[in-house]
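ok so i was messing around last nite and threw this chain in just to see what happens. nothing serious, just curious
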Amino acid sequence: MRHNKKFNHLSRKKGHREALLSNLAISLIIHKRIFTTLAKAKALRVYAEPLITRSKTDDMTNRRLVFSYLQNKEAVKELFGVISEKVAERPGGYTRILKTGHRLGDNAEMAMIELVDFNENMLEAAGKKEKTTRRSRRKKSAAPATEAPVAEAPAEEAPKAE
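result:
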């Protein structure tokens, strides 16, 4: 039976897998975006998002717990400083995984994993997006409804030259 065997082992022993995920999480925190294989990106999301959630409340307990996973002072400082300010009101979903194609050497499926609040291009595009509907709308008239329409005088015709 496969009870409690949900996560991907990434073809590594426990110590090697923990070191790999820790190093990937440090790189993600420092650089805000990394390129890796799709399997590693999905495993990293499960590993990194609880750490980002812990960084929302800045106290000694959470700092020590996060440091026990990362073992990098600069990454912990960045996580509890810059990143926790940006994700303070976000309820979850701090990372985004985008598939980028296949690696040339072994045809492994590659992906980019990034922190959602640090991609300025997508934030601008989301702000500019207009709501569209499939139904056509009538154009609203330029003249307000409260004013009475002004009748134009008919134009006089010029006499025809023969």
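not much to say yet. The helical segments are 14-31, 38-55, 60-70, 73-86, 120-128.
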